[in-house]
Amino acid sequence: MLTRIMEIYSWIVASVIMFFIATIANFYQKKFGKKTFYYYYSIPIIILLVSAIHLFYRHTVLTEFMELMGAASAFLASYYLYRLMVGVRK
C-alpha cells in the first residue's frame, strides 16, 4: 500500500513540475518572442494525472503504458524547450 501511495505521489509531483515547465515556456515565448508551443505541455500533465488517478484504483499494464507515454512526452517537451532556450541549431 505504501509503494502505491509513493508512486501516485511521484506522478503528481511530475505533473506539477511539468506545469512549472509550461509556465517557463509561456514566459520565454512572451519575453523573447520565440514560439515554444507552451499549450502542448498540458498533454503530459493530463496523461500523468490520469495515470496517477488510474493507479489509485488499480495497477494494470494500461497504467504502466500511460506512465511511459506521460514520461516520454514530458521528456520530449522539456528537451525541446531546453534546445530552444540554449539556442541549439539543427
Tell me what you see in this structure:
There is one protein chain. This protein is an all-alpha fold and 90 residues long. The protein has one domain. Helix content is 81%, strand content 0%. The chain contains three helices and no strands. The chain has helices at 2-32, 42-57, 61-86. α1 (2-32) runs parallel beside α3 and α2 (42-57) packs antiparallel against α3. The protein is elongated, with a radius of gyration of 15 Å. It starts with a helix and ends with a helix.
Secondary structure layout:
Elements: H1 2-32, H2 42-57, H3 61-86
Helix pairs in contact: 1-2, 1-3, 2-3
The main β sheet shows up as: none
Number-wise, the strands total 0
What global shape is seen?
A: elongated
Low-pLDDT sequence parts: none
> In DSSP terms, counting alpha (H) and pi (I) runs of 4 or more, how many helices?
3
Radius of gyration: 15 Å
User: What percent of residues are in strands?
Assistant: under 5%
Distance between the termini: 47 Å
The residue-averaged pLDDT reads 92
What is the N-to-C succession of helices and strands? HHH
Number of domains: 1
Q: What is the SS-derived class?
A: mainly alpha
What is the share of helical residues?
over 70%
